Amino acid sequence: MSPALSDRLAELAQWPLDAQADTVDRHSAARLHYLRHDGQLVVREIRAREPAAAKQEDDEDARSASIRLFNPLDLPNLFKRTKASDNHTSDEHRQAEGRVELGEEVLAGALTSEGTICGMSTEDTVQGFRIVAWTSEKLLVFEYACELKQLYAVDFRDVQSVRWAEHDRYVVETEEQFEVYRLQAVDADGNADSSVAQHNFQPQLVHRLSAGPHSASCISSSSEILITSGHPEEGSLHVLSSANGKSKKKQLWLAPPTDSHTPTVSAVLALEVDNIVRGYTDGHLCRTTLHDLCRGAPPKVSASAALPGRIAGLHVVRHPRTQEQLIIGGADDGSVALWSADTLTLRARWTLFLTPLTYVVQLPDVKGAPLRGCALCVAADGTIAVVAVDSLQMVYMIPGAIAELRAICWQPSSMMLLYADQRARVWDTATRELWRAVGHDKAQEMLQQGGWTEFPLKENQCVPDLPLQGTTHPSASSDMNAVLHLDLQRFVAESSTVAKAISTNRAQTQTILATMDRLRVLMGALVTPGLNEAIDAICARRLGASSSGVHAGFSSNGCTALYTSDNARAPWCISPAVSAHRALAIVVILRALSVFEEYADSTNTVITFYAAALPACVGQAYRSPSLPFLAQRWLEGSQEVRHAARVLFDASAVRMTDDEAGVLVEHWQHQLPCLQPPAEQEAASSAMALFICGYLGAEKYTLMSTHVLTDISKSIALYLHDEHSTHRVLAIELCSHGFHVWQHYVDAMEVLRALFLLATSSKKDAISVQNPGAQARAALLAIAAAATPLFMTTLSLDVLSPASAEHRRSVMQVVAFLIRKRPLVLYPSLPRLMEAVVKSLDPNSTASRDAVLDTATEIIRQVVKTFPTVDFHGGTQRLAVGTSEGAVVMYDLKTAIRLYVLEGHKKRIAACSFSPDGRRLLTLSLEESTVLVWKVGSSFASFFNPGAPPRQGHSGWGALPGQGGWGTGHAGSEPFKTFPFNVGNEAEMTVTETFEYVKFEWTGDRNVRVKIRQSVLTLST
């Protein structure tokens, strides 16, 4: 499992060299070797630049730049390279040197005085390096260790290249074969002898590998060489090997035969997800849909006329007055045409360029501008054709330059063209004349004055902004130009929004059904039928995913890889990253389909298969998804992608052995955020380290040392408490997933308090990394269930003694949230929680009471509504709270004090209820099969004994039909009346069931009906 973080390449440096291009070689990471044009071998060290030196140089550049800004600007001579340009080139050179630099030249000597060196290759040795070089007639081998020494020279003609294979073997490539030679140590007489101190060497032929005509080669070892032959689109890939002295040639891949007379796709343009225009090698256009494209169905609409060459690019512009969409296409012969996007009717055609059309820029519709309503068609050589879209006429041409055109800057009266050689040309759009040519500094000064609109020529400007994009570049191969790129994250997000919408008309219903159909089509293109018959049946019959003829590949950083195979197991045997990529795409699509209720069960089954059952179906060649890849996608992805990445990450982590998990954690643990300097704590590598170590630590914490778990916990707290951290959501997710582990290594109460504040943030806009309220609320629910005692202790303490009024309000909002979402979590601690809520209403603390009054009132209302063991009487402002021990605690909300405790029951109270006038309280215990009636109204005696329960004042029988009842007058322990009952099995229920099946219905101040499931008890109190 590779721990690679990213495949993104960054330029470190560039240096101009006085060298023969074919002789530049860097076999070692620390040295560069090349031949100068005078034949001298040069050795230069490659080393990292000193940070202080780099900073000093940057400071000098900044001071120099600030001085130049205040100097008067001279108009340059357009025919002479200006000093400013020279300075700019120097600045560019210093900037490009970046983080590495070349050492001074060390001249090793001349390789030969006879003939010209055609090329060379180097190989490191213990004391230096060896060189093999060749001329048109000789092959020479040298050794360098402080000085250059020639080992031998032999006659050799028709050499195409020579490369080292191992430390003492090199491969000579000719037109028809490869010859492998070994450096053989010999004595003075030419006999093989490796015992002498001063070696002489001679070449010894090891074997020959017959290749035949070939176009490219790759030497993996001296006994295995890959070669290609034929045209890239019609060729083959072979491997050459040697066994028992015999040369073998094995074909690995053969391009499928193509009919040269059959047109193939050369350009693709997506106008909409279900409106795709394809250009062909015969110059024709056609229209198709995503569904037909995946099924291989023929196009439904074709253009009425064609271009005379291969379609090399397709773009779309709008008519400035009618807003009609027009397609601009270019062929490889330089011709350009406009078609109607609706009907594919040809509207205009010209032959404008010598090279194919590459970019189209539609200028803004500015009233009075000379080029209002025009589009700029840019050819590969930088030539620009100005086309009037409204009148369908070619206005004029702007010639190209030697350097590549990088950007077009436009303002109503001028156009500036920026080139790769740091020069710019400014054209007057009114007179159509070249106004001036300027250097980079002057061009930037003009742009900074404002009023310019810049169009960088890195991406096509005139392509619809859709999740589905085509590849339309003339330099791309025909295979690449037939590829459609799908931004799956964006596509699924948009599809989910449509699917979750409530249909109010027929058009909206059709849109929802079309979205569902597109998801099924994509699922059919991604899944790999043939691994499991049951899963194949579910996909085909229940989910409606028909077989697809397209090949799925993946794109990253501008590169695309396509995988073609008829074997269902092959896509899962390429690499961990490819397995992760494909599985992630499948799970994301299936989760989007699960929004439709009829597909929910089937999609969950298929997700489980691709997440957990693939190894058994694919076999030993299966490459388990890369956990670093999934971690990176979680950090960068949307909510849909994050959920899918977590599913696959957890499934892969479960399959890992303890040793594999230990190796992975050992690799990443040193990059945890708490171990990094402050400047690097927010780096992607630090967040990935926390993701991988955190989730593995939550599942396999017994394998990790205490200091690793401590570092993980500190890193979680670091992100959680940092208000500006972009990885706060990650910390919240890890709190939700492994709080039972992290609570032992950090201040768990402070972590909970941070989650309280995040969960009740006042920001109600879209969820983002800066407003992760939904994630924090989900984490609190998980923690409340897993660590209930700690959670309730923190909650109660913060209600009674908050750090601030704002914090108390947040905590009480959390309580209200838990009552709605997880009432059973609060149930065991309900008496303690209600006491804290009541005390928060202390009238002696006016400011605090006013701050929480609304929230506390809402909590009490929700508690009474949810829990039958709590009841409130508004007239008397009394609150009764039943406990699991059988006692009932009575509170007075006016004074925020506990009045007394009624202790008639010995077992858990299931429900209680005040009479309408507030003078009676009924308590019910299902475990005792008893209903007790208590007098709780104020009396004359209560004025002389405040805080004591009212005297019940009655000694007699209360009875149900067919049953006895009794009452006593002892306040606090004996109720006013007691009603035993027997309802059989209906009294057997869980706590959750009591919320629904135990009810009190008062028909008067002294009459009540008690419902226990289907049984009804009518009592007179």
From TrEMBL:
Protein's UniProt keywords contain Lipid metabolism: no
Highest taxon above the source species: Eukaryota
Keyword Cell division in annotation: no
Annotated Pfam families: WD40
InterPro entries per record: ARM-type_fold, Quino_amine_DH_bsu, WD40/YVTN_repeat-like_dom_sf, WD40_rpt, WDR72-like
The name this protein goes by in its record: Uncharacterized protein
PROSITE patterns the UniProt entry points to: WD_REPEATS_2
SMART domains: WD40
Origin species: Schizophyllum amplum
Residues making up the signal peptide according to the UniProt record: none
Keywords: WD repeat
GO cellular component, one term: cytoplasm
WD repeat start-end pairs: 902-936
